[in-house]
Fold these 4 entries.
Entry 1:
Amino acid sequence: MKIVLIGNYAPDLQESMLRYTEMMRDGLLEAGHEVVVAVPHAALNRAGHSAAGAWKWIGYVDKYLLSQQVLTRAARQADIVHVCDHSNSVYVPSAAHIPHVVTCHDLLAVRGALGEGTDCPASFAGRLLQQGILRGLRRAQAVACVSAATLVDARRLLNGYRGRLVVTPNALNYPYRRLDADTIRRRLEALPGLREGGWLLHVGSNLRRKNRECVLRTFARIAPYWRGPLVFAGQPLSDDLRQQAQALGVAGRIVEVVKPDNEVLEALYNGALALLFPSRFEGFGWPVIEAQACGCPVICSDREPLPEVAGGAAIHCGADDDAAFAAAALELQRDDGLRAAISRRGLDNAGRYSRVAMIERFVSLYRQIAGGT
């Protein structure tokens, strides 16, 4: 089967979506399929300027005007076209002779554009774009949601949709595993303050829905009773968050690891006391299963899909209940038996999210829509 994967516009720097497309490509190739990755061409933004100010609008021209013909030409050669990110569903044609599948990671921006409280407000142009994304999803022959929670949103917002709506969970996009102490130490030796094991970890960005404010409040509650540092991996802290850390008196105990590679991130998970993940809204929540695959206990919010993804192998708290997050972290620090039990359950749960299983689900879906069954 020849599959064309529609990937993301490189200057948008959507790293998780770039990783998802790479994971799909590698998995389909391993399964014996012919794969072509087609991406919107950065014709006007060859220097890769970030999507801010005028460059945001230049990106729209690149993506939605200048790239259409290139992507259409690539799709003509396929048995299946798979749009790897629902934000690119605008590329699904109104009269498709070749079946199109779209992976729907979340509908938070669409919901925000409709006025729903998802921490994703939209400008006038943003609302128009989200309307186009919904229309594109309706044109696809199948929409594959990464979680049951996302499926619920899709059923509601695509009311009357005639294609196939299915759940196809994400897989681990790197073979995260448990590491020995020497490997952890060697990988993290360049990071000050992390020479000894034991830190609290948050992986993600400064988006409001990621709720780094709660992470800081949680750590401030723990700080008098525990000497370990707090590690933020991913996007560097914003000025507002640094000011909050200063006001809480914990700024000197924070370590920022900006955009760590997979090996460093794997070592961070392995050496952590726990992953703190108080996200208010998610489509899936990759850090949860990444941490579990490394034996790192997870303390995350109780908002779906996080309980679904964590599979009963995490401690859940109210998204803004820093007192509950702090109590859970201290309990893990004091109770080795509890920590070991949650770690074992997490390892078992992470085993459900293999790339082979994900690819098998997609290939089955491809065959169904290609054969009309």
Entry 2:
Amino acid sequence: MSKLGILVNTNKYVDDVVGVVKAARAAGHEVSIFIMDDGTLLAAELAKACADDASLAYCDHSAQPRGVKDVEGATAGSQYQNAVMMHDADKVVVF
């Protein structure tokens, strides 16, 4: 089993992100998602759709000016969580 990291930095492609997560989990891979910039606008939707299939964290610094806070099912963090995901992942996909 390999580890897939998904970096979401845009508020587009939510269906594609969810599809990749579901396909990766179905293939037995571990999935981590880090959400930043405009991607934080999708944090709640991604947490709802993927919380059972992936660990999610978002950049609180990016989220605050966009009015995103306290996303259930995701960790409010910093670029540290992004760095950990990048380090631990065997592959990273960027949206």
Entry 3:
Amino acid sequence: MLRFSNSFYILTKQVFVFIVIIVVSSCVVQEEIQIGTFVPSEIKPDTSINNVVLVNHALFNGTYPQSSFYKDSLYTMAYFDGLSDILSNSVQYKLVDAPVQYLKKSMNEQFKKLTLEELNVLALKTDADAAVVLENYQTTYTDPIKLIFDENYGYYGSLVIENTSLWRVYKLKTGEKIDEYLLCDTLFFDAAGNTFEEAYSNFPKIDNAISQTCYILGQKYGKRIANTWQIEKRTLFNCEKPDFNEASKLAKNGQWEKALLLWKKYINHKNRRLASLACYNIAVACEVMDNIDAALDWAAKSYFTYPNVWATKYISVLEKRNAFIIQINSSDKK
């Protein structure tokens, strides 16, 4: 994959939703914006892969709810629903217009990998470059659910579900294995009630709870293999100053450079609080325009001009994002 500049890791598309949240004083109001940020996958994507097909090659190994019939298709589809939700927002991969492909295997073939012939057939059938394959999965859960009684809180307890799934990614034409990963997680469903029966009834049905864990693990595997977008919130400050109002309008229209120039007029204002807020807004503009180093400098200047909790929190967010970018760029060089 081509090595991206910091701009690709921070922002190339913007979603603007301005909401007045609170009145800080008779002058200042806080406004919330949403920005789309790029989240790299855990593994480096293969640039030769574009179209992806999903394949169910799984055998279940674990505990099925005693009160229900065989739920294999329910659980496996939950995995693929979670995976599809992530891949549908992928920067690179595109799901082919085909249902999840089901390839059977016997218990004696539990750890059998797909053959090159099977992969070639999938390539011809779906016109995909690669297959994301659920190979096996296992779920276990607390049975029976243990409830504890407390005089102050009544009955309470947790339904604990352990979920493990084995995934592989293959190139269809060559049979090359791109990834093999065993994904494990434990999820807790808490419930409480004034009586034993009330508390127990507040737990989700086992089938539904297991399906939720499968969906979550499907999402997690999607984030492992695919670059995606996520929405994050940022804050801007506005007041009755005409320049601040005009800058806010410009920002809403994506004209951040012009908005930044208006805020800069106030960075040395005798009202240090107003100057601090102008510096803070400039920091947000710098992040949106792809300059994390400058954003950190302006957020720090906001704090030192007039110490405030908003700048402190924002500096922490920017430092984490900057460390993340350095880590990703370092891994790209290896």
Entry 4:
Amino acid sequence: MSMIRLRMKFALMAATTALMLGLAGHASAQSDFPSRPIRLVIPTAAGGGFDILGRQVAQRLTEDQKVNMVVENRPGAGTITGTEHVARSAPDGYTLMLGGVSNIALNPALFRKLPYDAKKDFVPVGFLATYPTVFLVAASLPVNNLREFVSLVRDNPGKYNFATAGVGTAQHIWGEIVLKQLGLNMETVHYKGAAPAHQDMIAGRVHFTMENISAARGFIQAGRLKALGVSSTQRSPQLPDTPTLIETGLLDFEAGSWMAVFAPSATPPQVVERLREAIGTLVRSPEYIARIQGIGGMPMNIAAAEQQPFMDRELARWDKLIRSTGIQLD
């Protein structure tokens, strides 16, 4: 054998050995997952419905499933900032996102140009819960039902306004849809998160918002805010005296504020499966179910094969509805 062929043979053997070692190391890293803390990025400020559920899930996964998870709030641009960050993160399972109807299903229909593709950039690894949204008004308003609110706003043009947790958030879009169906014009005031919007509503500086029932329930029960309707098809056991929006006869609006954990789409299948296993065990546990139901939500136990189809249906549904209302943010 010539010296050149011998060298080529040794080079091929070395390359093959390196590849095999690399693949073995990669497989070992996946089998050891998770070997360090996982970041759960929440694309909203602290204090809202996203944040409340995200922190509960991170705590339960850390304590019960031995998956060390830390929460990182990355608010901005109506959930876009945090969502883009996760879409561009390393697809290794160590950076996840708490996503929901706002950044996954609403934004693609609202913005002509998004720095992420909800369908291509993310893979769902576990749906957590869905909550009805509450039509909230300031306690200082002299109204006790939705019909009285509509009359008050129409009789006082320019006096009352609408608060959101940020441009493009579910509170913003659902509020705009509801106001359009009611034929009301209200000035929109955007906040950097739900918490400051709540405080200004309690103070009477803003007058109406749409909010997740888990974030609104305490204010309602304390008499600090009024609930005039819920977005579910049936009344919430947590607010049995509050009619559904459809029940009022003034609106044809039903929506659930669902939330799920997402990973970058190129995350290895074995890692996705490990995450799905941990989250699935959590959402099926009696303690988790009781906790979610106790704050007005419904646990979501969607099988792995049905997670992507559910996401696709939500994308199509909200694209059709938003386009029919003519709402566009860019």
